[in-house]
Amino acid sequence: MKKETLKRIFEFLEAKEEHNAPLIWKHMNNIPLTEEDLNVKGDLNLYKSNITSLPEGLNVGRDLDIFGSKITSLPKGLKVHRGLQIFGTELKKYTDEELREMVKPGFIGRIFR
After folding, report:
1. Residues 111 and 77 in one domain
2. Which of 32, 54, 88, 101 could make an S-S bridge to 68, C-beta 3.0–4.6 Å?
3. What is the pLDDT averaged over residues 66-83?
4. What is the pTM assigned to this prediction?
């Protein structure tokens, strides 16, 4: 589906107050994020996505899966409450301490390329 078509669909849904545009759509298209957008209640699955960054202050209630994505660094203020899957990414290397600060009390699955 073309980007312009998706944009019109999300604008229609928001105008009818039925559904907000997805966080990743907003982030990739430089649409301002709300506090609600940054607080993902469940999982955030970006498996093999072309996204290259995540927004600052992102709080994921369960798992964040960036396996095989193009993300190269984790944002300031990231919180993941269950698990962070970073296998097969271009992610810069973080110390165990840096990752533990982001993932409480969860687990980190990681193998760097």
Report:
1. yes
2. 88
3. 91
4. 0.77
